[in-house]
Structures are given as structure tokens and as C-alpha cells.
Amino acid sequence: MKYRIYSLLLACLLGLTSFVACQRMHEEEVPQGLTIHLSQEIFNKREVRAPSDQSVIKTLDVIFIDNSGNVQAIAPNNTGGTSKRVFRYVIDPLDPSVKWKNNNRSTNTIVLTEVQHQVFSNVKMFVLANLSQTVYNDIANGTLNTQSQIKDAVSVSLAANTAHALTEPFLLTGETASFSWDGNVDKEVPVDLKRAVAAIDVVIHYDWDKLDPANHEGKYTLKEFDSKTYVGEHYSVDAPVNSTEQTIPRTTNTPPTSTITFFLNEYDLTKNGATGLPPYILLKLKKLNGAKELPGGKLPPPAGDEKDVNGTDTYYRIVLPPTIQRNYYYTLHAHISQPGSDTEEGATTLQFNFSVLPWVYKRSIPQ
Questions:
Q1: Using one digit for the tens of pLDDT, what is the confidence trace for 140-182?
Q2: CA 249, CA 218: separation in Å to the nearest integer?
Q3: Using one digit for the tens of pLDDT, what is the confidence trace for 56-79?
Q4: Exposed, middle or buried by CB within 10 Å (0-12, 13-18, 19+), for 204?
């Protein structure tokens, strides 16, 4: 009797082990077909502090480009239905139809479910995140029929006095290497997505003792910033806009410093044919004049009255470098050690030093 019970238990144990092993094998070996792997640095690297804590991806559009640069129209899964020129995946909030590799979002790999029965030869994928609806529509209806036409398109255009309003979600772009696929084996194609804008921190060092940032707010205005975010690289500043006047909060740092943070579109005025002027930042700060004296002593009132506690406006400008590259993070250090100008038009130009790093930081994948 005991022997029969032991045999039965052993059989159940072996059966359970086999079931778990088969289940695990099934989970690990589910065919994925054609997938696209999004660059890791967009999601989980943080090498430098950047002006934003997240890289938001709302939509992801995949376009297949042939070796002549033309957009390919593809019938989804060879169903005979209407061909599509662009395949959109809604990431945030996540559309239930979006499928991740192994059903695991942390793989950062999307299964291209609509093209699993397509045969590809010498094509590449042009991938765009957070593309404007207007450009998406122009690709979908064939108005933009080549990769070069898409790159010339404008995804974001800022209105007058909104240079400070370039905010997330930013346009990101990338393209894969050329590949072929016949559907017989799984194929994962990597793509490196890059933001179409740059991030900048301007650190102001108050070295002149007539400035009192602990008790007086400063002001700044972004001037002559390019208003257009292009899908492809763009070198000219040909549609400049300003911002409204922004506030520099009081600071009690020792030594006193303030940081201005903003984003801007790329440009490179060193390129042949590039037009426009570098953008600049206008600073309006308060200087304290203090009591006025002559060699023989203090002037009579009111000229030599008490210290000017309210301060008067003094102006400086920080002219940005001739080249700003997309997807980079710039830190500029501007030291104010001399008087500014009494007028905005004659604002004193400040010298600065700066560092440039790849703009990478942590992102939380939407749940």
C-alpha cells in the first residue's frame, strides 16, 4: 500500500515538473516575428543632471523606407486591405493593441504586429516619437512621400512671445540600419532615438557686489530663438521668436548663483548657407547704488541720502554659441563682475564658459 502511495506521489511530482518546464519553455520561446528595440539611454541611463526628469513618449510612428529613400506602402499582414504608409503605436497612455516583446514592457522592444507576413528587402525603418498630427497625416495620405520630404517638415511651430514654451513631449527621431527579413526567423532591429531639441542650463554667478539676488528677483527674456522644430536637422535661425519676461527667483546660495533652464531648437550658423543670428538671453537685474560720496565727504541730500534699498535696473545679455546640436545638454557659466547697462538696447555682453554632454536621463515606462 505504501509503495503504491509513493509511486503515485512520484508520478504527480514528475508530472508537475514536466508541466512547469514546458510552461517555462513556452513562455521563453514564443515567436516574436519582427520587432524594434528602442534605445536604452532614452529609458534608463542617467549620466548627467538634465533640466527634466522624464522623456515622455506619447506616440511612436514607424515608416518603412526603401533604398531610394521612398516611403513604402504596406498592406497590413497581406490582408488585401488598404495599404499604410505609417504605423502608429500609442505608448502613453498605452493602447491595449501595443504588444511588447515577451509581453514585457521593460524589454523596450515593440512587436510590429501589422507586418508579420511582409517580406522586406533592403529597407530601413524611420522612427518618430511625438510627431505632430499634421505631419503624421501628410505621411499617411502620401503628401510626404520620401524621407527627405519628411525631414524637411516642421513638427512644432511656436507662436510669438512663446520661446519659453518649448516643452515635453519633445519630438524624437531615429532610423535603423538597412535590413531584410523573410519571416522565417525572429528579427529584432535596434533604433537610437534622439530628441530634436537641446537642453540648456545657464548658471549666473553674481560676482559684482552691487547685485543683491538674495533680496531682489531678477528677470530674463529669451530673444531671437528659432520657433520651428524640424523632423530632420536644420541649421538656420530663420523664424525667430522671443519669450515673455520670466522671473529669476531670489537666491541665498553662497557664493550667490541662479540657474535658468530652457530648451531650444538646434541650429549651426557655421554651416555654408545658414542664415540668422545666434539667440541670446536678456538679463534685467537690480543693482544697489548705495550712498554717494566725494573726496571731501558725503554729498548733501538728496544725492547722498541713504542707501538705495530698492535698486535700479541694470541689463546684461548672454549670446549663445554659434552651434547648438539636438539631443545635447549644455551648461553655461556666466560671471557678472562689472556694471551692466542702464538700457536694454545697450545691454552689457557677458562672457561665459560652457560644457556639452549627451542629454541622457532616466525615464519611467508608462504602466
A1: 999 999 999 999 999 999 999 999 999 888 999 999 999 999 9
A2: 7
A3: 889 999 999 999 999 999 988 766
A4: buried
Listed as own residue / partner, the contacts of 152-156 with beta carbons closer than 8 Å and 24 or more positions apart are 152/230, 152/231, 152/232, 153/230, 153/231, 154/228, 154/229, 154/230, 154/231, 155/130, 155/131, 155/196, 155/229, 155/230, 155/231, 156/132, 156/228, 156/229
Kindly calculate the radius of gyration of the chain based on its CA atoms and give it in whole angstroms.
29
pLDDT at residue 232 tops 60: yes
Q: Which residues contact 300 (CB under 8 A, 6 or more apart)?
A: none
**pLDDT higher than 60, residue 41:** no
CA-to-CA separations, 238 to 125, 227, 252, 328, in angstroms, rounded: 30, 8, 39, 21
Percent of the chain with pLDDT over 90: 66
Please count the helices (runs of H) and the strands (runs of E) in the chain.
4, 26
Q: What is the DSSP string of 182-199?
A: -SSS-EEEEE--EESEEE
Helix (H, G, I), strand (E, B) or coil at 203: strand
